Amino acid sequence: MEEEAMKTQKFVKITAALALAIGLVAVTVVQAAEKKGEGKNEQDGKKVTLADVPAPVRAAIKAATAGGTIKEIEQEDEDGKTVYDVDATVNGKDMEIKVAANGTILSNKEDKDGGDKKDEGENNEQDGKKVTLSDVPAPVRAAIKAATAGGTIKEIEQEDEDGKTVYDVDATVNGKDLEIKVAADGTILSNKEDKDGGEKD
User: Fold this and answer.
1) Which of 92, 107, 126 is the last residue of a domain?
2) 23-51: per-residue pLDDT in tens?
3) Of 126, 145, 160, which closes a domain?
4) How many helices (H) and strands (E) does the chain have?
């Protein structure tokens, strides 16, 4: 009986040791999997081609760079959302375009550093600069032409509002001075009569 009891105790100890070993292996496997997952996060910011991006993003990039040259497309992760940073040359100017995964253009501005994103502070100093109709992105140009049809464009100013590029347009339409604000994707944010005749204090 004592031998059987000893055998039982040994069996229990061996079983416990095996269970502990299996538990340690399981923890190690989970940790390894987590590390692999972290490794995948390091892939954010990877370079992709126009063919790699989703159809809505491809269409938005083509529209924003119409007549220009795409230099680089980078897929990044911002707050858990995929965005695409595009460096392109349009009308002889280096442009930095940010597109959401659904094709929405989040920003479209001139990159004074020629694609170098280290000196973003310098880019902010360019906000509020005067531009011409040929300088603005195609969607903005189309919106401005539609809003000022039959009128005269006096001035277009590129500005930065809350990190987003907008275009302030002073124009005369049907004898009235108008102030039109257009988003980078061509959406008209406001279109109102300018009682001051375009004078900005």
Assistant:
1) 126
2) 555 445 545 555 554 444 434 578 999 99
3) 126
4) 4, 10
